[in-house]
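To: structure subgroup
Subject: Chain for Friday's discussion

All,

I'm putting the inputs and outputs inline so they're searchable in the archive.
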Amino acid sequence: MVNPATHQKSLDLTEVLSTPSGGLSGAKRSPGIWLGLILWLALVAGALAWMSYHTHRPGPTTAAPAYWPQNSKIARDRKVPTLLMFAHPRCPCTRATLGELAVFMAQAQGKVQAEVWFLKPVPAPYAWTNTDLWQTAAAIPGVSVHEDRDGREARLFGAETSGEALLYQTDGRLQFQGGITESRGHAGDNDGRAALAALVAGEPLSMVRTPVFGCPLFATNCRVEGDVGKP
């Protein structure tokens, strides 16, 4: 004998599934919903792929001089290796690089002369380089900070990407060229910092090159938050 209440519930469920706007039958009759979902997923996947590509795409590099350029106005240290870093004062990627430089310098005090040279285009306002990146670099113990007017020294040493570091030994030989982050704007252990630490510790390594992750050094559209000077 059929229970009237159970029979009524079965009928109600059948009606829901058969209505154009509800249940599986409704979903099957709305291909536009599935198409929209597929397009949305494709857009999300594409955006994530582009972000990953951008993050892990190194900047351009040109081989630096194998020996310290004689016409450079930077004074090379004759007692300890000299580490030069060329940076754009408004490149957000360089913040992570400076963080790695601070970690390195905490381990290399007294073993290296370190200088950060910030690009200053000509003409440019007086305080154009006075950004939080300048202040961050200046606050690292053992690091001196300078303006590179019109990128003269950067061009002389072949630097093209913000955050590029060069280590020259006391005899003027280039021993390291590259970046000290694993990817664009990401701090953490990386081959560049490890190589620098080994070199200043006196380990017998040959010339080391690592990719540089940062904005183009001579770009005009880089900008960081916390600028002190006006653009």
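Points worth raising on Friday:
Helices lie at 4-18, 23-28, 31-55, 94-107, 132-138, 152-157, 191-200.
The beta strands are 82-87, 113-120, 143-149, 164-168, 174-178, 208-209.

D.
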